Amino acid sequence: MPVTQTAVLAALDADDPTGLLSALAVGPRVIECPDLGSGRLVFPRYRDVRFLLRDPRFISGPTASGLLDELSPQVRPIVAPVASWILYADPPLHPRLRSLLSKTFTPRRITGLHEKVQNTASSLVQGFAAGGGGNAVSALTTMIPVHVISSLL
Q1: Is omega for the bond preceding 2 within 30 degrees of 0, making it cis?
Q2: Measured on CA atoms in the order 121, 126, 129, 134, is the torsion positive or negative?
């Protein structure tokens, strides 16, 4: 299979993506993947990703702005706080937020969450099954983080 967007999407959906990931690792250094969103590029090599994450020329702020620009003017004010999330924050905000979060998300604290996450997931899955099923992704992936983050606060 040529190393294209199709290969990237196949690797994301594969039960065992080992072979596909190996092909991506020796293929092009960057793969354009418009189906993942506007202007989305995939960098399959660890060295390239590490470089991009540490180079100040590659910042996240424009990503948040671009996200907002793609929304209708009526929705933008509602979603605008996304631009301040750590995921989209750039220096000097990002290091400040990371410092605050690192005090809360210590390895010991995360290890201590294991039982809470497992119990929460089991309870939600049981409720989901008892309710007749539905969209498991939206039913479970929304509520698990809410329960876990609430327990941290």
Answers
A1: no
A2: negative
- First-to-last alpha carbon distance for the chain, in angstroms, is 47
Do 151 and 113 contact (CB within 8 A), yes or no? yes
Residue 101, SS3?
A: helix
In three-state secondary structure terms, 31 is strand
What is residue 121's three-state secondary structure?
helix
pLDDT tens series, the chain, 153 aa = 568 888 888 888 888 988 888 888 888 999 988 888 766 888 999 899 888 877 877 766 666 666 777 778 888 888 888 777 887 777 788 889 889 888 888 888 888 889 989 998 999 899 989 988 888 888 888 888 888 878 777
Whole-Å CA distances, 47 to 7, 26, 50, 120 = 20, 12, 5, 37
Structure tokens at 141: 């992936």
For residue 75 the two structure tokens come to 């929705």
Please answer whether residues 148 and 123 qualify as being in contact, where contact means their C-beta atoms are separated by less than 8 angstroms.
no
